[in-house]
Amino acid sequence: MTQVHVQPLGQRRASLHGPTSWASLRHHVATWGRYALGVFCVALLCVDVATNNWEVIDFIGDAKHLLTPLLTIQRPDDMATQFIFPDDASPGRVSTVGQFMLNVSLAQIQARDSRTFILGMGFHRIDNHANDICGRLVQVYPIADPNATSVRLGSVVDSITFVGGNGLSHGFRDMAATANAAVGMNETQLRARGYTPARHGTDLRLTTPLSIPPPHQASTTTVSMYRFFVKALCSGCEPFTELGLDACRIEYSYNDAAHAVHVTASHAILGQYHELGGIFPRRQGPVVALYVRFVVVVLLLGVYGASQKTVQWTDMALQQSALRRVVGIVAPPLYRQPCSVLDLSDICFNSDVFVVLYTLTVLLDEEIAMLFSCEMHTWHHNTDDMFIEIRLLSMSLRWLWLHCFVLKAAKWTCHFVSMTRFTGDNRVVGWLNFSSSTWIYLGVFVLFQRNDIVELSNSDRVDLHSTTQNLDSTFVQFLDSWYIRTIPALAAAMLVNLAVFLCMDHVVNRSWWQSFALNSVGRQLMFNSTSILAGINGDWTVVVRPTDGARVFYITIKARALCTFRWFLSSHLTRFGLVEHPSALRHFSKGRQGEPSRNSGTTHRLVHQLTKRTPRQLVDPPTDCVRDEVSVAPEEDARQNDHCILVQDRAGSIHLLNDHMKELQALSVEVKILRDTTFCLR
Predict the structure, then answer these.
(1) According to a count of CB atoms within 10 Å of the terminal CB, is the N or C end of the chain lower?
(2) In angstroms, rounded to a whole number, what is the distance separating the alpha carbons of residues 606 and 589?
């Protein structure tokens, strides 16, 4: 068997016109751009695993010192013995749900057991008044003991946040013209304007001891203010608590006649830091997600290691046990010969097993991840800490696998509901594919806006305080809550993002997609499986037959690479079991009769190479060649190799047929593996 070497047309043109030619420049920019995007996403994934692990953060315990003021307090009523509160901001003015939330938070602080995560969220620099929360201390604090020499201040505000509109409606209306709710309105007024309850919050502030000055003498000092902001996404639900610590500069005086401390001014010290933490319920989802993520990492290492070897070709007629098929996903029988038909991105984004498991991990962990990232984003929004920004981006990167899962699910659904009998007939399924992983990488930049979309959806909001009306009859429904109500906007952003990049890929690479669909391998990836990446490492050639002018798409691939590719297609993708159209089989069996022989001169063709020696392009697979340009190929070309076609039967089994429509058996393929020969797939 003579080995075929296809000379890329783009490389020949670059050599004629010099290294500065447009085709060569575009090729290098595309290659390095794709490489840079891959490195960027891998780096973010490593940051996510290392810094956003709830078990590790809880074990380190950086946020536990934020619990200090409440470590000896068992009930909300006990706070009045250690802190002084304003009359309208005391625990006695808190609603029933607010009392319940404080009780739950105090119980969690006292227990500090395996039922909660106490997580640190970093330090956030206070550069302006946007992150200044010290103003709440400006109150009048009555003192019960006139002989006290120092006091600790406290303030608690109970409220329900009402939100109007959502991310979709805000994008089509003028917020300044329509946001007509104001602080002080009651529930009836807010509901009449279209606002709904979205979150119940009880905001508790406690300070360190403050010396009482002589009567009527103004004093200035700095105190540490602890924040315990207990939030619930529905009335009666288990809440989570935002923890905080600030240094506040206050001006105050003591009125001996009224036995009260008057705080006249309070503000944060610019340049100082707000320390952020949180108490989150430890449910089964995040714990299971941790173990599933470990399994996914082991799976990825095993599959990638197997993909770099030559997988043994097995006859589909042989029956395998279920256990053997499961083991074969990670550890198939291998030859020692190396193979590089699959990239790491092919496994991460295209394997059904990996995508489903990692999506499951993301969804199980999303309960804490969403709260964690949104709370951190709220404080980071007005600062410029690069490390915090990277952590937020790494958590948003998780949705990239949700992206892939949605696309795979859409592709399977379109196949399931269609009446298609032959591969290639369902054109909608063909559009649900990317030509390379670069298009998937590009979609992550929209996912990075996840927290901004949540903030936009809840931007039109107003708080209804317990001092305005009794909150016991006002409740928050879970489906209207702070995060659930943002799901339509997030889903719309994800679907639009997918649709835009799919259309861009298919429009920019229109000629390549049309040619790739002519090949049996292309049809298996595009129309006959849940694959969302249509690329394959090999030499591809478009031959124009002089007899009838028909275009024939060849993929010349090493036998070793074909074995590994078949294993991935059989084990890691869901096959649809569509057979080839009879006309395609007839054209294949008669195709070589209409082609000129190797000694009949030359053939017009377009050539391109997709091998590891020439990396695949960033977004445009055929950018190395000029579209619709015809070149004269040398006599030695792809017709020297055995012509085969890759097909499926109704059961989804993969078969390799030669030009006599006979299936190649494992023994004949093994000979080609040992000789390192090639197949020419049509």
Answers:
(1) N
(2) 22
